[in-house]
Design brief:
Blueprint lengths: L2 H13 L12 H10 L5 H14 L3 H6 L2 H8 L6 H16 L6 H4 L7 H12 L8 H11 L8 H13 L6 H14 L17 H4 L17 E11 L2 E6 L10 E2 L8 H9 L2 E7 L3 E4 L4 E13 L8 E5 H4 L6 H9 L2
Helix pairs in contact: 1-11, 2-3, 2-8, 9-10, 9-11
């Protein structure tokens, strides 16, 4: 066992996190659920979602039997909705297989499970000796071993994977893996607390006073902006929601219809089958994605005549119910602002 792994294991036993709701179990379903939710999301945000999911879907069979709308409704607000859709798809695959895949190699074949997530599940559920490399672990390894460059670059990531595999201990893999996660999440953060780090002495970035430079940040670029007009169509206590396509942003969620800003009346008549009366522009919302920023211009419209029959993928729904549906955060924000 390397000095690095040994020091982390000792530190974890004294200072690591041991009270998270997904710890203390070897149930692969619970571990898988937590690992997927924790992708690109902080622990504090995940905990209530994790607990609600388990109450509604206590096992993989219950999750597989649910509708996508039910899954996305519980996921709503957690972001990165492809994770929820992939979770649902993977549950169906697991049920078809008849049992939970028992190795990192097999787990990686499931929708939404990459190399690092598969390894984490295999470590905690089956005790497999496998290396993880999430964002926090990349930062720990890059600083400690002086691996320069942006971790998103293929060459840099390859070096980090090689180091992650080289440091795996022959025993205590669960404790070591949790230590890496905890160190990256609580000590070796973007603004590191080097005084609390169990491996600070040999850390190359600390010794060179370059913890702010290693690892290198993602290259900055100006994000393009997309502007959309959302129609908040009101008829009494109801609003119209439209289901988004299964792929793309907010895939499968319910949202307000998007319309050309210059011909709202014509769009509503031709496409939505309703007549609109008074209109009012509401406060613009902005929402950031990885590759662009979305500027949402909401237009509240009073509907004087609803279509006699609802179109597929469109739903007139009471305001109170709409806010509880599978909707993205900006839609819920607008719904809550409506009188």
């Amino acid at each position: 066992m390397s000095n690095f792994a040994s020091a982390l294991i000792d530190w974890q036993k004294r200072h690591g996190r041991r009270d998270l709701p997904w710890q203390g179990t070897s149930d692969p379903y619970r571990i898988w659920l937590s690992e997927v939710m924790l992708q690109q999301t902080q622990v504090s945000a995940v905990i209530p979602y994790y607990q609600r999911f388990l109450r509604r879907f206590p096992g993989v069979a219950a999750l597989a039997a649910a509708s996508e709308d039910e899954v996305l409704q519980l996921w709503s607000g957690l972001g990165y909705y492809a994770r929820g859709r992939n979770l649902h798809a993977a549950a169906k695959t697991i049920v078809q297989l008849g049992s939970f895949p028992g190795s990192a190699e097999e787990l990686e074949k499931l929708p939404g499970i990459g190399r690092s997530t598969a390894a984490a599940i295999a470590v905690f559920a089956f005790g497999e000796r496998a290396a993880i490399l999430d964002g926090n672990v990349k930062r720990v390894l890059a600083r400690h071993f002086g691996i320069e460059g942006w971790p998103g670059e293929k060459a840099v990531e390859s070096r980090l994977w090689a180091r992650a595999n080289a440091e795996l201990p022959g025993s205590g893999i669960e404790t070591y893996t949790q230590a890496l996660m905890d160190l990256g999440a609580t000590v070796c953060t973007r603004a590191p607390r080097c005084d609390a780090c169990p491996v600070r002495a040999p850390c190359k970035a600390r010794k060179a006073r370059r913890t702010a430079e290693i690892p290198a940040p993602r290259p900055r670029k100006v994000l393009p902006q997309k502007v959309v007009t959302w129609l908040i169509l009101r008829h009494g206590a109801q609003v119209l929601l439209e289901k988004r396509p299964p792929v793309g942003i907010w895939g499968g969620l319910w949202s307000f219809p998007e319309a050309p800003a210059r011909d709202v009346d014509g769009y509503c008549r031709r496409t939505l089958g309703c007549e609109v009366g008074a209109k009012k522009e509401l406060e613009t919302l902005e929402h950031g994605f990885t590759h662009f920023r979305l500027q949402i211009r909401p237009l509240r419209c009073e509907v004087s005549k609803q279509p006699g029959v609802e179109s597929p993928g469109r739903l007139w729904i009471d305001l109170a119910e709409a806010a509880q549906a599978a909707v993205p955060t900006p839609v819920r924000t607008l719904l809550e602002r409506l009188p």
